Structure prediction request, 96 residues.
Amino acid sequence: MTTHTLTSIKQEITQTILRAYSIFMRNFKILDLANNLSDTQQRVLEKKIIEAANNGRLPCGKARIIAQTLNIPLEIIGHVADKLRIRISQCQLGCF
Prediction:
């Protein structure tokens, strides 16, 4: 292998590690935010998700409305929906 090839491989490995770390930290932040919801906030959010879902699916547009109404990040909506085994459908922006 040439030095150029080894350098390219090292750069790819470094970028992969940084992407994985970024994803891990993002997920950690989401879990931290979700765990800091009060019991009342959690119940209200779960109720709204269940009411808006149809056949175990929550359309992205409805998820966005819930997030805006409750002033909660979209990632939290996705996390709680996952816990309820409700899938986000008709995703519009790849947020979930």
In short: The beta strands are 57-59, 87-89.
